[in-house]
Queue: 3 jobs
Job 1
Amino acid sequence: MLGEMKTSRLSPRNYFNLYMMVFDELALLESHFIEEQKKGRRMADLYESVQHAGAVIPRLYLLVTVGAAYVKTKEAAVKLILSDLLDMVKGVQQPTRGLFLRYYLLKMMKDILPDKGNEFEGEGGDVNDSIEFILQNMSEMNRLWVRLQHLSTNKDIEQRQMERNELRVTVGENIIRLSSLEGVTFEIYKQIVLPRILEIVVVCKDTLAQQYLMECIIQAFPDEYHLQTLEQLLDTTSNLNVDVDIKNIFISLMDKLSKFAAQSNQGDESMMSMIGGNLDIFRLFKKYTDKIIEEQGRNIEVSKLLELEVAFMNFCIKTYPSNISYVNQILDSCCQILRSSQITNQDTNSMKLLVKLLTIPLDTLSIRVLKMHHYPTLMDYMKFTNKRTVALRICKAVIKDNKILTSARTVDQLLEFIKPLLIDDEQGGHEEPFEFEEGQECVSRLIHMIANKTNADKYYDLLTRFKRVFSKGGKNRQKYTYPALVFALIRLSQFMCFPAENAQEEVKIEVDIDGEQEVEPAPTVQASQLKIFKNLSELINSLQSHQPE
């Protein structure tokens, strides 16, 4: 069966199937070699004897098998066996056969490499020998993998690309093995492992290899290591081929770090500063994302850039959950993208990404998003259904926050943000009945969050601001909003009758959307029972004419 491994007629997929059958048989052979050693046969003799096999491929597979048994029996220093095997497997330079031979070598050695605290560490080798072994093997495997592409003609270049994709896990296995070594501390990773891997990535000058290996680095090593070497990783992206999709590399890194931040016990800026030291992680990501937008913005689809910004927003919210400035900077970048590359209502992917971008901050920032003037600007790029989705999410976030609205400025901003729920779309956007009802019920609940227990004039002023907008919403909306406004006005009337009692029920400082004390000019209207009941009469008469039942 080993003789079949010499073939060059099989596709990588079929060659892999053959490899798996050979692997199972050689596992039995390795057990036989160990049994022979127990009976008194020297492993050095077995190691020497298999080298007399005629064909190169069978000889090297046998040599690796005996070498693994040799290490397990501890009759020779591990580092000497590893070094010898690395030299021997250089004899196979055909890309597919060479890749699988080295993959077999890596698999056979994975559990017996010297590592911190294991039985193979000692005079025969340590974790540094294991690291050097894997890095050398990776360098050679990557070179063979890249060569596979250059063996093709222009006619079968796509076929070769597909075959290389099938073989990529053989190269990535080296990074997996490195990440699993207990002795790879952060210092070793930073000073030895990462620089060597990045050198292999950059030097190969192959788009597929660079893309895949960067993804492997991100997924394999701990998030704590990435945080402390972030600048080194991001800086390497500027040395990659122009065809490498750097955006996807950034998205993978951001997603992984944002999940780490969310799962952390602290999950806030103190955690990130503790791990990242004095490094401003946001500024670093912002610098390189802006660089991508500047250099590649006109050559890639708008949806791809928005996808990058969504990942950046998700990372920012989970890592810096209370920093409005960072969110504003991301929204500003999105505005710049859309100003330079317009999107249409038919671009459904971009529309979905915009919705996601604007809804991500709501869970943590809630009503504070009203301070972000980019929200209405970005919503203007959306079609009605998407605007409505964002407006509804804003409504629900304010309701969930359960804070009384006492500021005229906050109310005006809120009304501007949720305008798609208040006024019919000029372009005739359609809403399903259940969606319409859900939106109006949420708007009606906002009315009951209006209050000012210390100043009736301000209380009345806030309610009239809602009334002015509701009067433009049409009879279908007024069916839901006017009753809520009626009850709110009745509550105001009760407050004016018993101001002292109501003031004692709830004493709240008026706050703006930053959570700080707000100084507002006095309202231009003065509340009175006559004005309240005139408004009540107007609202009830309007409801009666539209909804006589």
Note: Residues 503-511 have pLDDT under 50 and may be disordered.
Job 2
Amino acid sequence: MAKCCNSHAAKCCLLILASVVLFSSALVSVSHHNKVTRRAHRRPLLCLQSTTKSGANHQSTASSSSPQKSPESNFWTTVTQKNTTSSSSGIPAIHRLDRETGLLPPGAYHNIDIDDGRDVISPCLIAVGIHPPVTGHGGKGVWREGVENCQKLIDSGFNTFKVNPCYGKMLDNKRYVRNGRRRDPSSFAWEHMQQRTFQTDVRHQAETEFYQTLQQDTPSSVLRSCHFMVNLEVPSILSEESVTRGSDKEIAPVSFGNGWMVRESVSNALLRTKGECLDSVILEYRKNSPYHLDVLNTLFEMKQEGLIQSISTHNFPPSLLRSALGSGFNIHSNDVRGNLMNTYNLQSDGELGVLCNDHGSSRLVSAPLGGGLFTNQYCKIQERAQLSASSEKMFQTLLDSCPGMNWKRYRTIMDTLADISLKHQVSVESTALRWLLQINDGDSISVGTHLGMDFVEEEGGQPYSRQRNLRQVFTFSLEEDDMKRLYRVSGFTSEENMLSEMDTNREIDFENRALW
């Protein structure tokens, strides 16, 4: 009887011990599952937090979510990591990024270095250039509609804006030919100055209406998360040849002085933007003006005073940019024109590219879509005669800025873009913009938009949806074969691309016995 009891007790002990072991292993399994789940769901939170930090933190967060460094290797974590990886160029590519709203992923914002260590808003790699409404369609009602669409862009993570110069608005008194005879250049020097003054006044008026309406309809906390850029003109110079006809005396060149004209221009810009300081000042290049370095010196003095956060230039030639950078001016970027038909300023091994790389500067690429010609609506237009009058004017402007280009070359580029876009299931404009970001890591692009104020941008009365195509840029990555195809049709050449082409085209000589 005692033996039976002892046997029964031993069995009970064994059962209890087995139950404890199974329960412990279950706890370990649940703990490991929760650990993996928390890691997978913590990544989006880290992405949201990192957008308020510097670009260096953006890169560290993005690299920490890379699948190569993660210990998990099961199916679920692999899928999550795949949707948060970046392309080989460093530009983020999140396949499940929300198509409409939400913050952009880390790496979609540029880092700005401030000498005194102040916190600044990191501008987006895609800046939005606002085209003012045409003459006769202005007013607060139109701008209110434009601001509503601008708020959609802000909700979609795009925080960098500027009002584009009004190059198309001209006075009617400028005539190069009068009475069948070509006028002497000196006779319309003053008229040319009047044209520039008129264009500047139109842009200043547009900036005033835009910022006034934006501040009325947008919370201040949202405005503090945005980065606004303001263009600034360089004073011109009047030489002996630039004297109006009939003048009885010559006008001597005006000395730069102590920079009061620049300070007055910055003060007026502060009044238009109604801010405590200017986020970014873009200094326009003016041909034959001797004041560029003097203006830069005054601007950097105002930067040290806390009135300006960053300073960029617009269309500075390499020689002038070299002088500015060599003088110690820390220029953030140089605004240049560039697209698939105009790649001269985009070459990484060109004079401008080498200069920017050596001094840590970057490029802000304007007109990336060729005035809207690299978009979906032009995919089906096979003949130039099918273009409307306005589109024909834009295309001719594009050709004038791209020597050696023609309609056949344009159609080849468009067909290639359409094919690659279909492959990645994105729009044509998203493909063109993604290519520009990937060819030179660190450069930004400025995309123009009328914000729905031209009554033509959105066909068929559809709601404004430009933000969707812009967000698509960060949902995919162009593969090496895609990049090479666009290199080939655009005529883009760089040292890296040339070496790649040489490696690809090099054939093995099987008749060479030295190889055997």
Note: The chain has 16 helices and ten strands.
Job 3
Amino acid sequence: TQSTWGSAESDYCTIELISAITLRHVLNVRIKLKMLRSLSFGWGRLFTGKHASTIGSLHASNEYRNRHPISCKSSLASEINRSVTQGDTNTDTGSPAVAVTRCSTSGVSPMCRHSLRSHGCGELTDKDIGLTVTLCGWILHKRVMSGGKFGFIVLRDWSGFVQVVFTGSTETGRNWLKLASHWSLESVVQVTGLVESRPTKDINYDQTTGAIEITPSHIKLLNKAEAELPFLPKDAPVVAEATRLRHRYLDLRSPAWQRRLRERSGIVHRAREFLTSTLGFVEVDTPMLGRLTLGGAQELVVPSRESGRFYALPQSPQIYKQLLMAGGVERYFQLARCFRDEGGKPDRQMEFTQLDIEMSFADSDDVISVVEETLKRCLPIPIATPFPRITHAEASRRYGTDKPDVRPESELLDLDGLAGTNQGVAVRGFVLPARTIDQSMRSELLSIVETESNCKLFLMEFNENSEFVGVPSEFVDVSFLRRHVDLNPGDILVVALGDPDSSLRSLGSLRSRLLSTRLSPSDRLGFVWVTDFPLFFASDGTGGPGWQAAHHPFTAPLPGHVDIVYTDPGLAIGQHFDLVLNGCEIGGGSVRIHDSALQRFILESVVGVDPNSLPHLLTALNHGAPPHAGIAIGLDRLLAITMGVPSIRDVIAFPKSSEGRDLLTGAPSTLPKGYIDSYNISTVVTGG
């Protein structure tokens, strides 16, 4: 835990108090503060060693609660209300500490308890007029009038901002005006003062604090920022992303980031509370350092001190959560950190967070219901459940993709009748409604038609005279359109000619590019489940030994397709289901294989993975593993869409760049040679 507006000296007892209250809430017991003398402690250590038997019996021991009340060496009230005296030394830096005022707990905003302030800047309204408050924050804006008679600063914190006004009518005021003129933006200050109403002519009705201002009685500069910062948080939307990533702490101060971080925290909290308290799930941490798992995404490896041996960072806790089911946990979840060695895209990062869920004695319907209920309770926007479901084959036919955006009304049409008796040619199309067409779309559409290589694309406009303009010679029966396609004047029919797969893929991509990208989440959230995926696909286009798992090799086939796996894997349908939102896959789940013989056959004979690389899983399946199913929801993707931002980098506090670099810290970086040698590896430098 880290708290702003505190110090090791002034907040020692407060931190102990927060720790004790937290443990009391978690363990439902009273904790002696002398048990918490470290500002940081490991949860694992709390439950092991000499305290293990005591902690393990806390819930059942009323006697323990009576014997161990919360204690503190000094009076809590005096400890919280005391101030750091001028001249105290910061024990971390050796420099003089700033004299700051600690607020009394009476009349303090709940969000500002145990801190150096009484309220958040954005919490104050005209109902607080006459109240003396203490605020802490950053200088967002300042203005000092010529002549030194009047000036103000706008103070900002996580909750918003408020105006602090200085007048030159007193010597103190003149001194503050003089000091304020030298304070740079983003400097950190503490202000104690009276909440007063603004003059009527100065009221800003668009701001929650627009009817008030603070007349200060005490101001302290806590830290002066450099005059020339790389950028100001208020300008972040127009600053290059690389610059914002390099100085992420400045970016995070912006109101947009403060809102997103708190919304993310609230969503995670509500999901965790619902899964544990309502549905009886158990949150379990799985290891970060594990064994390389073949047959999936490229994993990141970590060297060990054993020569020639490496760990792998998990692309997913897949194996561990199945082992938890074999271990009788029955209902597991965690907010799992996952890693994949792949390039960054707007919806991908080398490291990301997923809501990982696994259930014993459950099928796909059970998992789907759990996800829908959880999302309905944790998202801050209303969503309608149950979500619609379509099969993989239906999604491909209607939308040209297995990640359909179901918001646009236009679906793909079977227009084979246009080609007459032309055998071997598939004709597919979709309608662009006139109301969606603007000049930029027309230009983009013409460019795509000219450059498309997978099939022939044609544009046919239905004019005001109910006539088709631009009908190609390949279409011998235009009357087919009048009978089968509902068109309005100004609509454009986009038609693709080619083999069925190419036509569907091209139109699906074009539909998404033209229609989906012009919609925003406010146009409604389009959740849809895609089910009944092929269990395998031919990675080399020929089948046979080139089979790859469509989901992962631990997905069970449909009950009636088990025999097909052994005879013709390419025809087997899996119990795999994806959750798609606005054309983006945000979750993938399946019923798992719990039969060791079937799992071994798929690994060895279908996808070509050595079963000896997963002896722990195969052995566990042989030792009485129950039927189980699960899903992983990409938290970052979900939040990016629901918050209306273009990239998951906009919902991750410290993301990697599209090249996989941490521009803030400079990772990846080189290592000292001695450090490398201890891991029995060597590096090869390539390139000029």
Note: The mean pLDDT is 83.
